[in-house]
Structures are given as structure tokens and as C-alpha cells.
Amino acid sequence: SSGINAEYGDVPCLNNVLEKQMFLQNLPSIVTSHVLDPQPGEVILDMCAAPGGKTTHIAHLMQDTGTIIALEKVGHKIDKIEKNILKQGLKSIRAFKWDATNAFSETSISVTCPPFGREVFDRILVDPPCSALGQRPQLSNQCRISEISSYPAYQWCFVADAIKMLRVGGTLVYSTCSFPVQENEMIVVRILETFPEMELVAAEPRLGGPGFPVKGLIEEHASLVQRFTPQHGGVDVDTIGFFIAKFKKLRQSGL
């Protein structure tokens, strides 16, 4: 089964109708799973998996074969993931209550449960906690500037370990539902500057617009990422604010 995905604005409240056949997601979230391009039989890590929309979509794209490791540190959010797995009858997902910033261990040889060692995953999705300024509808936001500015350092913890756990030739997709360049384009720049083994590639299929110009991000690279904003090109559909970048690992990471 390839699963059915629908935009929130396209359907009324389902009230549990067809809950085993349909899982509602925003369009950029749907695009993210396709950008990851999971293949049957692969071993995939979803580092921040709740509530499980992308995780279960990935499983459907893989024809429910291979292994998907879904991590979430909050207990009640793990319950939501497992509920969605059960509803959709999926067998390839293994969910763990685990802080993904501690998912990597230099001494681990595990490929089945955290913590994991080096280069064990074919593809990794990093959709870390963010300021969520792209979420809609949002009549007000109580976030303080100090809180918003704290996210990039936290997000980097996920990215740095993900690259260590990714196999040579593997794919890393980084995404957020936020607007600030500090959480998006500047993370891309830092990845390229810190990890020369990582190559930024086109985030396809492409429905969003290009990235914003920031220091260190050349125009070619800005054209490879995707931004979904009300004023910034891309698909002619009103969506939440979102960012997607895709990387390939060309060689082994430095030890």
C-alpha cells in the first residue's frame, strides 16, 4: 500500500471515518517523505518521529519492508506513534522512547535499538524541535526571542549525530516547520562547512520555492533546498511555513 495523504484544507473533519485508510498531513510534510525517497528493505531512522505521520508515510513508501527506527523522548508522544502504527497495520516500524540527541554512541555496535554506532542507517530524517513559527493557524505566539534563538544549537545536536550514523552513500533530510534562517539555511551552511563528506543535493520532488540568501549559501545551493512560505514562490497552494534540505554522504565521516 502506498497510503493516502490529504491536505487539511481539502477535507472536512473525518471524526475517525476511514482512520485506517487515511492520515491527514500538511503538504510540505508529505513532500518531505518523498524527498527522503525511502526504498524497500532499507534501514531508516526518524529521529523525532511524533506523532508518526512522516514515519508511517515512509513505511508505506517502502511497502512496509525493511526497518524504520522511530525515536521520541516524550512518553505520551510515543503512545501516539504506536497508536498510528497499529491503526495502519504496519510491521516495519520500531518505536523507542529515547532522546535522539543521545542516539549515537561511539562504542555501540547496535543496529536494532538505541544507542546506535557509526554508519548503520541508509537514510535519516531529522525533523527536530523548532520554533514552529510556520505553523498555521496561529493567532498569537508566546515564544520569547531567547527561546527562539536557542533552537539552532539544539537542532545541531541532532544533525551532527545523524551524520555519524549515516552510511556512505546514504541520504540525510533536514526539515523544520519554521521560518528563521538560523534554523534552516544557516544549518545547511554549517553542515557544508563542518562536514565536507556531505553534499547538498536537490530536494525533489520540488513544490516549494528556493531558500533565502544568507552568508555562505551560494545561489546554486539556495536553489536546491525548498521553502514553503505564503510570499515565496513554489506551489500555488496555501501551506504552512516549512523548510526541506537533502544531503548525500560521499565518504566516511572523520573519527
Structure description:
Helix content is 27%, strand content 20%. The protein is α/β, with parallel strands linked by helices. The strands form two sheets. Strands 3, 4, 5, 6, 7, 8, 9 and 10 form an eight-stranded mixed sheet that branches. Strands 1-2 form a two-stranded parallel sheet. α1 (27-36) crosses α2. The longest helix is centred in the middle third of the chain and has 21 residues, at 145-165.
Q: Beta fraction of the residues?
A: 15-25%
Helix content percent band: 25-40%
The total count of helices amounts to: 6
Mean pLDDT: 89
Element-by-element helix/strand order: EEHEHEHEEHEHEHEE
Estimated radius of gyration: 17 Å
Shape summary: globular
Give the total of beta strands: 10
- The span between the termini is 40 Å
Biggest β-sheet, characterized? 8 strands, mixed
Would you identify the regions where 5 or more consecutive residues have pLDDT less than 50? Answer: 1-11
| Helix and strand composition category | alpha/beta
